[in-house]
Amino acid sequence: MLSNLQRNRTLVKNQTRMDKSKKTVSEEAMQAEWEQIQAAQTNPAKFRPLYEKYYNPIFRFVFRRTASESLCADICSQVFLKALQRLGSYQYKGVPFSAWLYRIASNEVAQYFRDNAKNRVVSIEGQNLQNLGEELEERPSEFRQQAMLRAMEELKEIEVQLIEMRFFEQRPFKEIADILGLTESNTKIKTYRTLEKMKKHILKISGPGEAPSL
To answer: What does pTM read for this prediction?
Structure first.
């Protein structure tokens, strides 16, 4: 159970939507990027183009999980510092470089909340909650939304990440799989099992057609 879950509905002005650039990266693009990475492995100064390309996406990813621009900037600094320090051991395995960076970012966020015993933030926008409700086959209502939010509080961290990335950030299953180090098919299975788990919690909380006790 994820007991330290918060829900944040206030995002920075340019954050009302995660960027829509999340799409399958072509093999040619990944190979070209691998050449950039190899150059940076030899000469760290050549890491800058990669830093400039991915800083904003990583910042948005971290911000949605912290709701603090200053904290987000600190964590992002750690993410790219560790990426540079570990770059020499990075090997291309047919997965976008961004997935490796997102994984480092996810670990840094989790480490921060463990070290500081603070609440985990999940940024939720109304439209995203509506999208999740449609997937759960829930009728749109304030009561049902409250039930969905409370059901999320019963999820494990990995389950929250699946819901976040799939329904709140609209990431394709392939990208989620790359970030979490799973196969695409396993990611789909885990996501749908998480949805079924949420449905059971919602039914337990509110009952069919009933309002949850707040």
So the answer is: 0.83
